Protein: Sugar ABC transporter permease
Organism: Neogemmobacter tilapiae
Amino acid sequence: MADTGISSSSGARGAPGSVATQATLPIARKPSRLFRNLASKIALVPMILTVLVIFVGCTIWTVVHSFTSSKLLPKLDFVGLAQYERLWGNDRWMVSIKNLAVYGTCSMIFSLVIGFTLAALLDRKIRFENTFRTIILYPFALSFIVTGLVWQWILNPDFGIEKVVRDLGFESFVFDPLHSDQFVIYGILIAGLWQGTGLVMCLMLAGIRGIDEDIWKASRIEGIPVWKTYVQIIIPMIRPVIVTSVVLIASGIVKVYDLVVAQTSGGPGTSSQMPALYVMDRMFKDQNLAQGFAASTMMLVAVAIILIPWAYLEFGGKKSRG
């Protein structure tokens, strides 16, 4: 009997899956955080180097040379804030800042409103939705130069909108914004909205289509009107999509250049000047690199003033609340 007990216990110790056997198995160590997803991190190395060398490096180089007297070629001949004093005393730069403020404000508001309205209309499952979506998005596939030239023809009083309306019998109709000092910026705005609104519409439509169907069922049961559902419920729920749209629109506003060159070349006079056009003219027409660098730096500062508080509220605020 004693032998039987011994053999039984030893068999239990040696049985697969027993506690003793599991205790002797080596425990696999998890890789450190540095080596997790190593292939993905290696794939990011070229992009990280590009950002550090090209974007960050060139930005620092530009800021440094904005404090010099560089003309045709860059040179480290520091003159302090002289280029910035000259910049803010230049009437053309002040006109470009005013135009950017008007164009940017109108473009941001109208792009979001029109884009969301079109997305809401397409979300109602209308007939030929794919056709309408393609037509509205198609201008985004065109370059800004092509868009500018097309709208230069459309707004031309000799064979554009004004000519068509006058041929219909309205002889007193006048619509020639590109040759008016006061309204030229709105002619450029029309072309910009025509090209960029389609992308905003598609982003908004994707966000709306991602809303759970139960939300719509609940709103119908509660008797909430459709427009109020969109305004009070859907818009807050697609906030990340709206933020993405705002960032894309803002990036296009700051660097607007092609439309102005194609439509007006900054005219009539200097009434449609933009900061990007000012930079290019100073650097390549006037061969004044330092003045162009100073203007570029001010554009960078303007972007930073907008993005840094937004990034803090979007990411830092969440972290502190967590």
About this structure: The first helix runs from residue 2 to 14.
